[in-house]
């Protein structure tokens, strides 16, 4: 999202995280801006029964965790490496200086945050009123548009696991599996070698 050389000019450092490493924890105060060079990161919470709810999944060239950084509020979720990841960390004060001195970058950050807010609004409405098929298709279509899923000969490869789909939509994984099979029978999705395509 922000050019790597510009981030490094303002003092960003590269750090590697192994799969399942915490990048930051719920309840901590933010100290850095984070942008992914490679790998995948999820932001999630756990309810009282230990069930995970994924707030979002982030990929190469995406940033995460900015709202608490701007508000100086504690993180409302954990950020965890889904796979080995290399991430740029820019101290908060340097990040704010970068935004003040680079209007185009500020606009990009605002657009990115607006996109996430829009997604959260859409998914909140889906989760409160819609059936599993509708929720899953809405998530998948958003993923195609926002996460740039690759188009292959069978369609768009949906780069979410069934567990992630469940955690992102508030559905049990068993419901996700059943619903995806039903959508395949209707010709809306394809399942090839256990991979889902739209």
Automatic annotation (TrEMBL):
Keywords noted in UniProt: DNA-binding, Transcription, Transcription regulation
Keyword Transmembrane applies: no
InterPro entries membership: cNMP-bd_dom (IPR000595), cNMP-bd_dom_sf (IPR018490), Env_Response_Regulators (IPR050397), HTH_CRP (IPR012318), RmlC-like_jellyroll (IPR014710), WH_DNA-bd_sf (IPR036390)
Membrane-traversing stretches: none
Protein name: cAMP-activated global transcriptional regulator CRP
PROSITE patterns found in the cross-reference section: CNMP_BINDING_3, HTH_CRP_2
Domain Cyclic nucleotide-binding: residue ranges: 15-116
GO cellular component, one term: cytosol
GO molecular function: DNA binding; DNA-binding transcription factor activity
UniProt cross-references to CDD domains, sorted A to Z: CAP_ED, HTH_CRP
Pfam families in alphabetical order: cNMP_binding (PF00027), HTH_Crp_2 (PF13545)
Xref: Gene3D superfamilies: Jelly Rolls (2.60.120.10)
Record domain HTH crp-type: where: 130-198
Segment forming the signal sequence: none
């Amino acid at each position: 999202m922000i050019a790597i050389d510009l981030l490094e000019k303002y003092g960003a450092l590269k750090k590697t995280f192994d799969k399942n490493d915490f990048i930051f924890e719920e309840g901590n105060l933010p100290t850095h801006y984070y942008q992914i060079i490679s790998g995948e990161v999820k932001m999630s919470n756990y309810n009282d029964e230990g069930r995970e709810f994924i707030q979002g999944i982030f990929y190469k060239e995406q940033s995460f965790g900015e709202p608490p950084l701007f508000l100086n509020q504690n993180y409302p979720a954990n950020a965890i490496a889904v796979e080995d990841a290399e991430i740029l960390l820019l101290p908060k004060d340097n990040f704010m200086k970068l935004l003040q001195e680079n209007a185009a970058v500020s606009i990009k950050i605002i657009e990115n945050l607006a996109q996430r807010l829009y997604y959260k609004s859409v998914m909140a409405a889906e989760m409160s009123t819609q059936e599993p098929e509708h929720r899953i298709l809405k998530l998948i279509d958003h993923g195609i548009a926002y996460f740039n899923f690759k188009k292959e000969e069978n369609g768009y490869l949906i780069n979410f696991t069934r567990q992630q789909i469940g955690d992102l939509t508030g559905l049990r994984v068993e419901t996700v599996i059943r619903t995806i099979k039903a959508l395949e029978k209707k010709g809306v999705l394809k399942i090839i070698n256990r991979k889902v395509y739209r």
